[in-house]
């Protein structure tokens, strides 16, 4: 087998730029940093589990793992949080090639050579939150737009022409103008054209999710952004999203409402990616054990430039991204791993083979952007601007099959 990690990361030109020591140096953290608002939940949720986790202990363990710990983890990585910790640690870096080979084998065993193709459709850039890394943040003086039914139908036409059958509906978080009544009106419009419909919008109540499922909702992507409550508070300064605990317990509500697939994610660059990834692993482990009927996916977006946005505090190198993907694949063979157009074509081409299962291409990150592109409305900059056909061609050249339709909820 060729050297997989060299293909995927080491040869990538931007690696030089990213190879700072800050990456492997141990970040300062202590349990005294943890302070988040009281959750209003009545039922048990991941918040209860999270409160018992010690950031200080986990950080200490992450940065004191040895080669022996990593070798032990490689023998028994599946569903083992201690192994995930070892595989995410700096001590696992010399084992990246071995991790990559195991990750590829596990991915092919479970998913074959298939890679699911999906595309985001931005419904609205209205937002009532202040998140300093996002182009849609409330205080940004950009033109705001929410698509009408007719405009959604207009957007769907070029999307269908690209060959898509799986769609991710995205909006800013604005409950009054882009809330459940709006979603209930728009979902049936979208549903008639796509066999799989996912949403990435504000967290909703359990009953809201139940109602949206009856309108055709298949999946909900709900990213915590960072599992560090202090960093979270620094970046989410206004609006409902500033409630760390409410967001943290949201996937519980999604699962209880019977949504088929739940997506977790962290915005890599906001905080120590190793610890954020590990805590996302704890979240995933809890959800899978508690709500075993749902499927799960993760997304690993790196912080990208946007209008008025912030620079990454902790930069994740390409090599680090490869380590994360491999560690999660070894931890969970069933897990779907998404890769967006935030990454460059070169890196994406190489990551397709590693463990990624869902890929977007030809994406616009603005409402109305497929009919009338206007970069002023973008949520963030896209790095891979290739057409879906070119991305599919790159997959085929690597012996992979782009899959445009893999789901029919009526069956
Ligand atoms: S990240 Fe989401 S909630 Fe925050 S400003 Fe952007 S769209 Fe709004």
Automatic annotation (TrEMBL):
Stored SMART domains:
BATS (SM00876)
Q: Where is the composition biased (Polar residues)?
A: 21-37
User: Keywords assigned by UniProt?
Assistant: 4Fe-4S, Iron, Iron-sulfur, Metal-binding, S-adenosyl-L-methionine
Annotated InterPro entries: Aldolase_TIM, BATS_dom, rSAM, rSAM_sf, ThiH, ThiH/NoCL/HydG-like
Q: Where in this chain does the record put each Radical SAM core domain?
A: 113-340
Task: Locate the region Disordered.
Answer: 1-37
Q: What cofactors does this protein use?
A: [4Fe-4S] cluster
Tell me, what's a Pfam family for it?
Radical_SAM
What name has this protein been given in UniProt? Thiamine biosynthesis protein ThiH
What gene codes for this chain? thiH
């Amino acid at each position: 087998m060729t050297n997989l990690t060299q293909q995927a990361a080491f040869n990538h030109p931007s690696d030089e730029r990213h190879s700072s020591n800050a990456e492997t140096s141990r970040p300062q953290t202590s349990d005294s940093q943890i302070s988040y608002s009281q959750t209003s939940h009545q039922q048990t949720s991941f918040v209860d589990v999270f409160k018992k986790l010690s950031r200080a202990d986990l950080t200490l363990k992450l940065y004191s793992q040895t080669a022996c710990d990593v070798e032990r983890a490689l023998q028994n990585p599946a569903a083992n949080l201690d192994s995930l910790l070892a595989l995410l640690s700096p001590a696992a870096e010399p084992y990246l090639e071995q991790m990559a080979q195991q990750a590829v084998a596990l991915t092919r065993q479970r998913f074959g050579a298939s890679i699911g193709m999906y595309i985001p459709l931005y419904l609205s850039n209205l937002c009532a939150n202040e998140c300093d890394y996002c182009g849609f943040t409330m205080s940004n003086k950009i033109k705001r737009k929410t698509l009408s039914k007719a405009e959604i139908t207009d957007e769907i036409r070029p999307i269908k022409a690209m060959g898509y059958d799986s769609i991710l509906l995205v909006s800013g978080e604005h409950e009054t103008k882009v809330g459940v009544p709006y979603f209930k009106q728009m979902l049936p419009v979208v549903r008639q054209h796509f066999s799989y419909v996912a949403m990435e919008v504000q967290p909703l109540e359990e009953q809201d999710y139940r109602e949206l499922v009856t309108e055709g909702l298949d999946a909900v992507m709900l990213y915590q952004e960072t599992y560090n409550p202090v960093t979270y508070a620094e970046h989410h300064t206004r609006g409902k999203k500033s409630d760390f605990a409410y967001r943290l317990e949201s996937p519980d509500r999604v699962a209880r409402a019977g949504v088929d697939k739940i997506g977790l994610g962290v915005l890599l660059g906001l905080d120590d990616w190793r610890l954020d990834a590990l805590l996302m692993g704890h979240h995933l482990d809890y959800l899978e054990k508690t709500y075993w009927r749902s499927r799960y996916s993760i997304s690993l977006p790196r912080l990208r430039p946007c209008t008025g946005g912030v620079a990454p505090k902790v930069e994740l190198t390409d090599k680090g991204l490869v380590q994360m993907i491999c560690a999660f694949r070894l931890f969970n063979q069933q897990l779907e791993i998404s890769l967006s157009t935030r990454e460059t074509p070169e890196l994406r081409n190489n990551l397709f083979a590693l463990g990624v299962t869902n890929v977007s291409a030809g994406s616009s990150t603005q409402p109305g952007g497929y009919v009338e592109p206007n970069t002023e409305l973008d949520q963030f900059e896209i790095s891979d601007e290739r057409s879906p056909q070119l991305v599919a061609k790159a997959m085929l050249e690597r012996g992979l099959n782009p899959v445009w339709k893999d789901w029919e909820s009526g069956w």
